[in-house]
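Note to self: keep these together.
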Amino acid sequence: MKIFIRCGIVVFATFIFAIAGEVIHQQFPEYVAHSGELIKLVSSLIGTLFAIVLGLLISSSYTAFNTHQADFNAMATAIANIDLILKYYPASTKNMRHSLMLVVDEVLNRYWPKHTVMHNHDVDYRFLENDINKILLINSSFHNISNVKQDDINAMRNHSNNFISIQANIIRNLSSQVPSLLLYVVFGWACLLFFLYGIFGNGTAFEFSFLFLGSIAIASTNFLILELTHPYQGLFKISSAALDLLKQSISLEDEKIFQS
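Structure:
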């Protein structure tokens, strides 16, 4: 389900519950007056729980977003270091650098919507296995180069291990996002809270306008959480600039080597 559709459902649901509360007030004013203090206590309790859990969700979602960005920057650094080592042996590593660029291409095509229509739940460990095979092939070919330094072989192995571990961490983080059921529970509290707000209303158009604004505010928090927990699509996307620049650099150098 698209994020905007889900946010629209939140607006609609909370506002409908507020209207239902207004109807209850109009139909049973004596019960509302008799139980007013108790209803206020319950609404305060629900409001407090809602604010605490919602704040935690936004905070954890923002932390997860920053973690994804840091992981991809670290991945770009690992690939750049591998490419730098390959540059020391230009006569023997042309095909290896081309294979490395294909790895960068696959990473871009895998995660960023402008390159693909793949969603987060489509990313799993089978991609990690493909990346491992390609990186191991590059390492094996590099090891067989004549006169290669042992320090360069060790550095290549370390940077390759970093790349693989970062990929595993990214896939693991993607598979442990905020559970949808938790969001349903939290925004169910929001519906109940607006229902209780509506009970204390008088059914005027002025009140309905503010209740509608409140519904939009609640939906905006849902939008923010969903955007931050889906970092490769939507308005708030992790930047692919580091990998794009790396791919461009490798491509330009490949063209220079080919022309020479």
